Amino acid sequence: MSAGYNFGFLDEHAKKEVRRAILKAISIPGYQVPYSSREMPMGRGFGTGGLQITLSLIGANDTLKVIDQGSDDSVNAVNLRQFIEMTCPGIDTTTRLSEATLIQSRHRIPETPLKPEQVLVLQVPYPDPLVVVEPSEDKRKIMHGEADYARLLVKLYEDIVKFDEITISHRYPTRINDHYVIDPSPIPRWDVPKLDNSPALILFGAGREKKIYAVPPHTKGEPLAFEDVPFRVEDFRDAQGKRRACARCGATDTFLDEFMNEDGSKRYQCSDSDYCDETLEADMMTEATTHA
Amino acid sequence: MSNNFKAALQSTLSGIWQADTQQRTFRQIMNAFARPGVIETLEGEFLEGDGMLLTLATLLDGATTLADVDGLLSEHDLARLEVSTLAAEQARFVLTHGKVAPAFMPSLGTLESPDTGATIILKIQEIGSGNRLKLTGPGVDGACEVAVNGLHPAWLAAHQEWNSAFPLGVDMLLVAEHQVMALPRTTRIEEIK
Amino acid sequence: MGYVAIKGGGQAIQGAEDVLEALRTAEGEHGTPLTTQSIEHQLRLLTSRIVSEGGLYHPQLAALAIKQSQGDTLEAAFALRAYRSTKPRLLETCTQDTSRMRLIRRISSAFKDIPGGQMLGPTYDYALRLMRLDLANESPEIFREVAREFLAETPEPNLPDTFPKVVEALRAEGLLPPVENHTETPFDITREPLIFPVPRSAALATMARAETGSILALAYSNMRGYGDVHPTVAELRVGYLPVMLPHPITGEPVEVGEVLMTECEVVAMYEDDDAKGAPTFTLGYGACFGHNEVKAIAMAILDRALQKGMRDGPTNPSEDPEFVLLHIDGVDSMGFASHYKMPHYVTFQSDMDRLRTTQQKHESVKQQDVKQQDNEQEVQV
Q: Does residue A88 carry a catalytic annotation?
């Protein structure tokens, strides 16, 4: 009963529906295209939306990279990668960003800029940034169509009045091509600037909420902000104002994970594990050459 | 072996109906939509038909609708595409010749659901030579130039008019032999005289 | 402490699978594996839940899903639903006529007697909920004896038969509005996303796949007072519905099999008819695969509540199509509840960054205030 699944698990009609939705998503940057979203054999919320996009795109010529929290070895990334390997015989998988043609990711955009021939698929739990100000989808669709984000801006402004700071930490509302405001998925603010004028196509899949949207390459992506309270990425400086470095590779220009040591002290390490590995290898190469 | 059976067998084996050919073709069409002005040359075993039939086989099935305005498809191909046909005013996909001016008003979608605006597939003579166009907008790094041959100028005017109230609009895919190029609703087109 | 070990994730997942299997077989060497036949029949109400929530009428696969998920209904329905999404659709059924159901149970609470008679059938409604200790150590011999006797004592004519529908009698009397002939294609929730407003057929299809506990909770809110349906069960029927498919060549409907299902029709108080004619009772409809009476009743009540909400606008949650239909799917809701167990440390890092920044601002403002107060006191002195 377990054998005999179609290449890519989904049947070809399901893939065609996703593909048609992707074309409309690209043509209307930032607009959430509804689609029927089939049940996948992993939980809603575990990346079923991203997975349906990946399975509708992937072919035998592809090399796939799957990451979660920036890591290829996170349990969820391993699980998704194994499932895709099992249902798509003939494809290659990799942990190296430079080798990948398709990248499926949860919560991070890789540190190294993407290449034009790559496609990034982001998994989305909540696709609609307006949900915090308007519970009815019916009304939100009209607000999006009219690019009416006044209530969202008021919400941001209330934050500033209360805390003197915009308190949105991740899923930062970002305006695409001067019209639609998207939820860029739970990427940290650190990754939001990568949406602007991206060399690669970025696709967003929300399986449970049955939506697909896109940020095409070379498209304006602007985080909502005010003139006097600018958008700010995460601050990784210590108390003395010095930028913290990755304890493993020494990088000072990456998003860092924070670890608690047994003695209560903290250490920091690159969230993007492939970037960390490559930096480490490059350092070792340089060292080897110097010693030689 | 009867001729009918042979034809049926051939159409089953023919590359354009195969899932892996359609997957590769879709990636090319997707890249065309993501990068207006980029010309993709479709590959596939063209035992029958050309880039147009492959494009339609890749995008259509029984869950969507098509208007074949100029009767470019045979009954046989229409049946194999499994697509329901509708008038050009209502269909989600409209297939038409690019050399004649449009004589219909396609669906532009609604403010709430602009994705219901039509995808117009235009058969033209050649992409890469002919009238030069300058394109700007999402997907284009600054601006780019592309030439098309066999596209009636009224289509450029229609693209501008139908897409004047974003997010409402139509998205166009030009197909010439084995080449495709997309002009989504966000693309601004200027003729280079 | 070292950095996050690369390659640990895959091993952890394998380990989790191994211990799940270990627990499933924890009875040890004297254990007997459950057969899917035993599950299908001895846990038939559980199987019923899974075929209906999984949206696929396949009791054997449902039984397997129950076995492999160790009895978790949400997981089992999920596995069945995922299996379903890999199957292409080859044919579509025409509208099925439930008056052709071969019934094992039918009751009406609206009338003392109904044409064809009340038939209590298999129900726990009037059973005393006392522990049946005799089942704790049931011998296979007694088990088989019960089966043999029941069949031997049941004469042929008592096998399930069809009955007229109670609502038809009400309709004939003019107490219910006549059936409108709907020609539009029913909304297909497996192929189209719900974009509100949705037609009633979309609501019915969504509720037919709903998680039993979730749909019951929302219907219960209406019964308790967040709503005003006040239903009477015109008829509740359980039985086997012959499934008709168009013949591939002639197009004539032919019977291809049967599905066990539960159907419930509730009648609610009449309403003004602005448009025309005499007022009539209103109807709520519920139906699902398998034997699941609570679900069919809950669905019928919500159908009636949603019809009102769709017409006049919702005045409470159970009348709001968006609220009801987007929160009753077990696969969606359990998946999302579970996903919070996945790593979220990148977003949490972001959260901490915001909190620390805000705390620092708060601290500096406080210090300024203190300084200002000190200054003011100095001035006073």
A: no
